[in-house]
Specification:
The structure is a single chain. This protein is an alpha/beta fold. The protein is built from 9 helices and 8 strands. A 6-stranded mixed β-sheet has the order 1-6-5-4-2-3, sandwiched between helices. Helix 3 packs across helix 9. About 45% of the residues are buried.
Length: about 260
């Protein structure tokens, strides 16, 4: 596993005395096919949220529970309040907290499908609309879970010839990166929102060994992390989450290794 230093921004977060008296950590992931684990042989064990859970439990020694709300092909529109995917996420988050107690953390990575030129819901999604949608999603989560913490991860790079059922290409790639400043702003707007590692773009860019090679309408493209890439992404997410978890008073006993 490549070493990754977590970089995140968390507005108005206070560091508290560390202890592991909180007996459970609950993780709920919101995302698209990358979060769902598309192209992996065993997504149920290899998808980034599943590996992330293992890393966090390993680091804290605290029982950690997960719900993977990744949905292939989805845009921010699909997770708007009242839509089935967000309703399902909220129901599963409530179930985790009811069953386990403890602290609830949401991890969101959306934007890849929003950036498409054509072929996904609402595409192409402008930066203004992306921001509006993300605000709606975050506000709805906070309404249902006032004490939760939300990590918004920056979307990862894809190859500029990406073209499967939807058309992305260079135009989509540029649009995807244009969402980064919007994510920066979200952390300033909400005290419960933190951002993940902003270097994730560079960490994945042109690192083809981290991706599944897929045949598309414009040649072989690289969009979905393979097993190695999924574990690498999970490591990045885990380090950002652990920084937040530590500020919530949970002791980090050792650095996670996968």
């Amino acid at each position: 596993m490549l070493g990754v230093i977590a970089s995140y921004i968390c507005a108005k977060t206070q560091t508290s005395k560390t202890s592991n008296q909180k007996k459970n950590i609950n993780l709920v992931f919101i995302g698209n096919s990358i979060t769902a684990g598309a192209t992996l042989e065993e997504a149920s064990t290899q998808a980034p949220p599943i590996v992330c859970r293992e890393l966090i439990e390993q680091s804290t020694g605290v029982p950690t529970h997960v719900f993977n709300g990744g949905h292939s092909g989805i845009t921010t529109f699909g997770f708007l309040p009242g839509r089935n995917d967000l309703t399902k996420v909220i129901a599963n988050a409530k179930s985790l907290v009811s069953k386990n107690g403890g602290t609830l953390y949401f991890s969101i990575m959306l934007g890849t499908n929003d950036s498409a030129i054509k072929g996904t819901e609402g595409a192409p999604v402008s930066t203004d609309t992306y921001q509006k949608n993300m605000r709606s999603i975050i506000s709805e989560l906070i309404k249902h879970f006032p004490d939760c913490k939300i990590l918004v991860n920056y979307p990862i790079w894809y190859s500029p010839n990406t073209h499967n059922g939807a058309r992305y290409l260079e135009e989509g790639l540029k649009r995807l990166h244009s969402y980064y400043p919007i994510i920066d702003e979200l952390a300033k707007e909400y005290k419960q929102v933190c951002t993940g590692n902003r270097n994730v773009w560079d960490l994945f860019q042109n690192n083809y060994q981290l991706f599944t090679a897929e045949e598309g309408n414009s040649g072989t493209f690289f969009l979905h992390p393979n097993k190695q890439g999924a574990a690498y992404l999970a490591d990045i997410w885990a380090k950002s989450l652990l920084a937040i978890i530590q500020k919530d008073g949970i002791l980090i006993k050792k650095e996670a290794q996968k």
